[in-house]
Design goal:
Layout: H1 2-28, H2 63-70, E1 80-84, H3 90-98, E2 106-111, H4 129-142, E3 149-153, H5 156-159, E4 168-173, H6 179-192, E5 193-201, H7 210-223, E6 227-231, E7 236-240
Parallel strand pairs: 1-2, 1-4, 2-3, 4-5
Antiparallel strand pairs: 5-7, 6-7
Helix pairs in contact: 6-7
The structure holds S-adenosylmethionine.
Length: about 240
């Protein structure tokens, strides 16, 4: 009788431990979620009428996911967008033309306009940052909407600290890719996001950008109870739920 009781107690203990360890592993990693899978959605190119100047298109494979994540914000008033790492302005101008079209919506860009510490250098353009800074500002002028766009030049890790908490609806991080930067950018950005707002983290790839991936996992571990994972892909999309 005593032995049976012992066995039962041990068995229950083991089950509880097993359940606890499962819950912890599940809860501490970003679950794999693909939203709107398979649904054909329109993707729109950037205007050719505006005479924008770009040397390369880092946004091409993203406009579909941007459309999926952001189409519910299209044409709405008082939507505030923040982008970390604007480069020549391709993503920022795409969302300006296709999503944040309302005259009361604003766009804020941050860039060092130089390759950050440990930043990958895809082309020689990074060797001459003055060129892409100039191109960015020319493109902003060409948009005809520069009154709605604010640009901060400097390290995002410093500038994000100066911005107002809970004031952005969408934040897109595509800046420095080292662990220190990615960690700071994502944590600071989270505090700037409004409730129901979206945080989009570019280059979320364990294989190609392990530091960006690690920083995103850490953000999830810290804030998982106030976030919903909407999409895991090259761009990770998280929603702030409280
Ligand atoms: C991949 S590019 C951004 C591409 C851009 N989102 C687009 O749509 O074309 C990365 C940008 O991050 C900027 N950057 C790198 N480190 C930074 C830092 N610490 N603070 C601010 N910007 C940084 C670089 O100057 C570069 O323009």
């Amino acid at each position: 009788m005593v032995r049976l009781h012992d066995i039962r107690t041990r068995l229950i203990g083991c089950i509880v431990l097993l359940l606890l360890s499962c819950t912890q592993t599940e809860a501490s990693k970003i679950p794999n979620i693909q939203f709107l899978q398979g649904r054909p959605l329109p993707t729109a190119p950037i205007s050719t009428a505006k005479q924008y100047r770009f040397t390369e298109d880092m946004f091409a494979m993203r406009n579909r996911i941007f459309w999926q994540a952001l189409s519910s914000f299209k044409d709405r008033p008082d939507i505030h967008y923040l982008e970390v790492g604007v480069y020549e302005g391709r993503a920022l101008l795409w969302v300006l033309e296709h999503i944040f079209t309302h005259p009361t919506s604003t766009l804020t860009g941050i860039d060092l306009f130089a390759s950050g510490d440990g930043e990958f250098k895809p082309k020689e353009v990074y060797a001459n940052p003055k060129d892409f800074k100039q191109r960015y500002f020319q493109n902003i002028n060409s948009s005809g909407q520069k009154q709605r766009i604010t640009t901060h030049v400097g390290y995002s890790q410093d500038i994000l600290k100066t911005l107002q908490h809970n004031s952005y609806d969408i934040i897109y991080i595509d800046g420095c890719h080292t662990l220190t930067c990615a960690r700071a950018d994502s944590l600071l950005a989270w505090s700037l996001l409004k409730k129901d707002g979206l945080l989009m983290i570019d280059d979320y790839s364990e294989r190609d950008f392990p530091d960006v991936h690690t920083a995103a996992q850490e953000l999830f571990q810290k804030h998982q109870h106030s976030m919903k994972v909407l999409h895991t892909g090259w761009v990770l999309v998280l929603q702030k739920t409280q």
